[in-house]
Each structure stands twice: as C-alpha cells, then as structure tokens.
C-alpha cells in the first residue's frame, strides 16, 4: 500500500512539472531563448527531484543555478498605473520571476507529498505568522492592487519556504554527496557571473545574453550604472542581475556559503569551495559596490584574525592588501551617496501620510510624486528609499512593520541559541546592506538572498549544530 501511495504522489508531481512546461510553451513567441533557459532549469529541478528523492535538495540545487538569472515576465497592467510624474517606472509593474516559479513548484510538491510540514510551521510560529499574514491580508483588501497582492504573496511564500527548509535541515542531515553537488553548482554559478561581469566591465557594454536576464546597459548610457575614473566612464559589473549592487551581494553570499561547504565537504573536494571564495573576492571588485566590498573584506579580516589567534601563526595572505585595494576604488567619486541621502530626506513626508495602513508592498515610488529628488543630471530619482527598514516601515505601516519584526525575532530565537563569529558577520552584513540598499526586500533575487543569509547565520549557529550533532 505504501509503494502504491508513493507512486501516486510521484505521478502527481510528474504531472505538475509536465503542466508547468506546457504553460511555459505558450510564451515561446515572446522569447524562445528564455523559454529554453527556463525549461532546462525546470527539467533540472524535476530530474534532480527524482534522482535525490528529496524535494528540498532538488529545490536548493535549482536555486543555486537560477538565483542570478533575472528572467521575468511582466503581467499586463494599465500603462497609466506605472507612471510617476509622467515617467514609466519599472518598480510599479507586477512581475513574475523564475525564482517565483521555483518556489511555487517547491510548495506545491510539498503539498502533494507531506502537508504535515506546513502544520509544523504554523504551530511553531503561529502568532507572528498570523499577525503578519493578517496585516498583509487587510492591506490587500483595502488597496485591491495587483502589484501589492503579488509582492505580498511573494514575500509571505518565501518566508514559508525558508521556514520549511530550516525545519528540513534540522530533521535530516545533509549528506556528503549533496554538499559536493551544491559546491559544484555554486562554483559554476559564481564563475559564470564572474566571467559575464568581467566582460561587461572590460567592454563597457552588456553582452547581449538577455535570454538569461542580462540588463541592456552601457557605460555613459542613461539608466546604466557606471563610474568615472580618471575622466573615463567605466561600466560596473552587472552579471545577469538587474544592478551591480545585487551582483556584489551575491558574491558576498557565495563567499559565506562556500565557507559552510569548506567545513562540511570531503577534504579531497575542498578545493572547489576555496576556488569559489577566491573568485567571489576578486570578482566583487569591478561591481564597485563599496558597502558590500567593505563588508566582504572586513569579514575576511575578522576571520583571518580569529584564525591567527587560534592557530597562532600568520596566514598566507594579508587582508591589509585587500583593504588597500578597496580604498583605491574610492578615488573615483560618484553621486551615489548624495542620491541615497536625498531619497532618505523624502521618506518622512511620504511616511507620515501612511503611518498606520502603510502604502502596500512595492508602491513606495508611486507615492513620491513631485517630492521625488532630482539627480545631478536633472532627472527625477524614482527609486525606493535605499534603506530596507525605512522601506518596510513605509510600505507595511507601523503595525505591519512591528508584526514582521516580531516574526524575525521569533525565527532567530527559535533557531539560534548562541552566535558564532560567522553568524554575527552574516547578520551584520545583512544589517549594513539593508541600511544602504533596498533590493533585499524589493526584488525577488534580493528577497531570496535575504533568507539565504539568515539561513546561513542559523546554520553557523551553535544551537543548530547541537541539535543535529553535526551538519554533515
């Protein structure tokens, strides 16, 4: 009876993936390149699921390959709803991401296979989850806006996915072969982004691989992110992310994740995560994302110092050289700090109009209107405030922000008993990035990295190790 029941579930999962591929085929005319890319990744997810017999392992493998790909589909919406000061704003367009598709497949497969996992999550986090979900529901009833509904559903679904994965890894150990596979996939993804980013930096223009989600950019082109060094305009590395800062955040995430692999992989394969870390450290430089570069080098400095104290010997490299290399980037000034400051100055006037009810996930730019700051070139700076905490406070309102803070507190309290140096560095990095940028809560790739960082902080914590005795 168990075999038949198991076979029935496998059949339902197979039908789910077949249906997904059928739906994707409807978009072939829009972009055959993107159709092929998404289809390959979906098939990879399915085949890995059949091979590993573990939905969570298959999903993480899918994420390691798809996280950098900014492959999206914009939902039909009235053009007038995307205008601010008669300017079209991409942030106001409801968009589905390849990561959304992966999360949908993961959640649906779990509903088919084991619904009790959801019950466990509800029981463990029922009060903060209920309060946060209630706030989002009331917002959506009040606003009845497609953009708010989509962003709310995405944010809440990603939280559920994260909590399910944490419970999975608490209950089942990650096998050595799975760590090896993860290491290889992360290496391929990181190396791929490094190559694309370097070529963009060297050529000063995008490579034309838009079927992987690459932005169409060029040095000096309006809307592109570049720096001026010695009178020369240099394009910052984008990879296939929508902005260089997010690529830098990915390299930082890749560095920390590789540290986990180093600790848990067989020694003969340890060169793979070490090589990934080296690529991340070198390739983050042409992103010119000063905050994230500083965070990475600061983490290396702290870890090196800790290693020196424990081993009482010098390392084979000196972090001081890396710091000097970072400081050299500051010689070419830009208006980034001024723009960030001007965006923060606009926040109070926007927030005081939406203190309690908020303005809904993703609609911050809509409320800027004539208050939008102006760039050095005289253009309206129509972007969310570059501060995760201020952005969440304004879009969720006071009650929504407090309920989300309560949920974060509950998650950390339940999963972390005492912090390790790595856990502190990771949480500190999230805090600092959140103070200077918005992508961790405003873009699918950023939200995915946010929970990835939090997950790593938990994995590196003492409590999870004690509960499982040994991660590997």
Automatic annotation (TrEMBL):
Spans traversing the lipid bilayer: 35-51, 58-77, 89-113, 125-143, 149-169, 181-201, 245-262, 269-285, 291-309, 388-412, 419-436, 442-460
Keyword Transmembrane helix: yes
Alphabetically ordered keywords of this record: Membrane, Transmembrane, Transmembrane helix
InterPro entries named among the record's database cross-references: WaaL-like
PANTHER family: O-ANTIGEN LIGASE, TEICHURONIC ACID BIOSYNTHESIS PROTEIN TUAE
Name listed for the protein in its UniProt record: O-antigen ligase domain-containing protein
Signal peptide: none
Organism: Candidatus Dojkabacteria bacterium
């Amino acid at each position: 009876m168990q075999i038949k029941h198991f076979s029935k579930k496998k059949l339902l999962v197979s039908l789910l993936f077949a249906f997904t591929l059928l739906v994707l085929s409807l978009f072939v005319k829009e972009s055959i390149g993107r159709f092929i890319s998404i289809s390959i990744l979906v098939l990879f997810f399915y085949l890995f699921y059949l091979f590993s017999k573990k939905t969570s392992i298959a999903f993480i493998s899918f994420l390691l390959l798809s996280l950098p790909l900014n492959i999206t589909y914009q939902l039909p919406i009235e053009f007038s709803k995307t205008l601010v000061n008669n300017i079209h704003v991409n942030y106001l367009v409801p968009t589905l991401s390849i990561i959304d598709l992966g999360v949908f497949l993961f959640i649906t497969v779990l509903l088919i296979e084991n619904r009790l996992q959801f019950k466990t999550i509800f029981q463990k986090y029922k009060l903060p989850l209920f309060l946060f979900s209630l706030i989002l529901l009331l917002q959506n009833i009040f606003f009845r806006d497609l953009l708010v509904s989509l962003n709310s559903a995405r944010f809440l679904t990603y939280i559920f996915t994260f909590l399910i994965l944490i419970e999975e890894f608490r209950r089942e150990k990650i096998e050595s072969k799975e760590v090896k596979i993860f290491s290889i996939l992360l290496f391929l993804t990181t190396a791929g982004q490094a190559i694309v980013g370097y070529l963009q930096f060297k050529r000063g223009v995008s490579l034309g691989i838009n079927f992987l989600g690459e932005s169409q950019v060029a040095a000096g082109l309006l809307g592109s992110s570049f720096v001026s060094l010695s009178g020369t305009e240099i394009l910052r590395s984008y990879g296939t992310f929508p902005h260089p800062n997010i690529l830098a955040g990915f390299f930082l995430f890749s560095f920390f994740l590789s540290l986990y692999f180093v600790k848990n992989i067989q020694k003969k394969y340890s060169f793979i995560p070490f090589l990934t870390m080296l690529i991340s450290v070198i390739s983050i430089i042409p992103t010119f994302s000063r905050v994230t570069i500083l965070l990475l080098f600061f983490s290396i400095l702290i870890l090196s110092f800790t290693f020196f104290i424990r081993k009482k010997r010098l390392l084979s490299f000196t972090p001081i050289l890396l710091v000097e290399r970072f400081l050299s980037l500051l010689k070419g000034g830009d208006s980034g700090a001024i723009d960030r400051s001007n965006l923060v100055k606009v926040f109070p006037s926007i927030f005081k109009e939406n203190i309690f009810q908020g303005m809904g996930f993703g609609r911050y730019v809509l409320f800027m209107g004539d208050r939008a700051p102006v760039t050095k070139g005289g253009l309206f700076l129509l972007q969310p405030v570059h501060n995760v905490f201020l952005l969440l406070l304004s879009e969720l309102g006071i009650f929504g922000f407090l309920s989300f803070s309560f949920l974060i507190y509950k998650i950390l309290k339940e999963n972390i008993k005492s912090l390790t140096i790595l856990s502190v560095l990771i949480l500190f990095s999230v805090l600092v990035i959140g103070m200077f940028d918005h992508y961790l809560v405003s873009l699918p790739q950023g939200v995915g990295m946010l929970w990835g960082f939090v997950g790593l902080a938990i994995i590196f914590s003492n409590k999870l190790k004690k509960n499982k005795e040994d991660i590997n």
